[in-house]
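Q: Sequence in, structure out?
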Amino acid sequence: MKILKIKLPLPLKLALLLALLLPLITNGQVLKKPIPDKLVVLTFDDAVVSHATIVAPLLKKYGFGATFFICEFVTPPFTDKTKYMTWEQIAQLNKMGFEIGNHTQNHTHVNKLDSVHLMAELKYIEDKCAEYHIPKPISFAYPGYDTSPKALPVLKAAGYQYARAGFDRVYDPEKDNPLVMPGYTMLDTNKVLIYGALKQAKAGKILVLTIHGVPDTAHPWVNTSPALFEEYLKYLKDNHYEVIAMRDLNTYIDIDKALTIKPLFKK
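A: Exactly. Output:
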């Protein structure tokens, strides 16, 4: 059988070679080391009291990391300590080794804020963290998943490295700007979706999960029952997932280079 040989001009050869090498070059720029399969980031929103009483002890039991995004809701009021943590409890989460992140002062959607008011909302939580000897947050979560291109320079200027949105897709650190990080929301009603999402944590993709109260008496429409939550934790442990806080992504990601990626505000 005669093999047909095609001679390509040198510029075309170089262009094809560059196309083959570009993914490797990009990988080397953004990643400090390869993303392992089964990497999961656990995040918890809204400072719900069950984070201290139920979630943290379970995470310790299974040896998992996590990030807790703190805000002070107006309705139901943050002063209702049957629904929300005290700042002493939040400080205790920090002492237990968990990350404390910023969710704005009052769970205010950033698309409704100008840069001055967004900075003020961020600073309120930062000041409370300083008061309770908690490190200044470097991770942020968009309230209601409402993003805004105008928020990114404010977050970056304030020293934030990661900001979690929604979108119901896995996080690709080579394609997603870390200030518009996609993730999935865990609910009592979407078990099939979450187990399917867990299987997508491979080939350089990271699963970021948003969880609210376990249970959530303040906002029951985003509830996760303790039994279901522990079922997920057992599955993660039995199947050898690595479960980390958002800040721990710095082990794998060169954040300065990742922040230059063009943001995607969509699924």
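The chain has one domain: 37-258.
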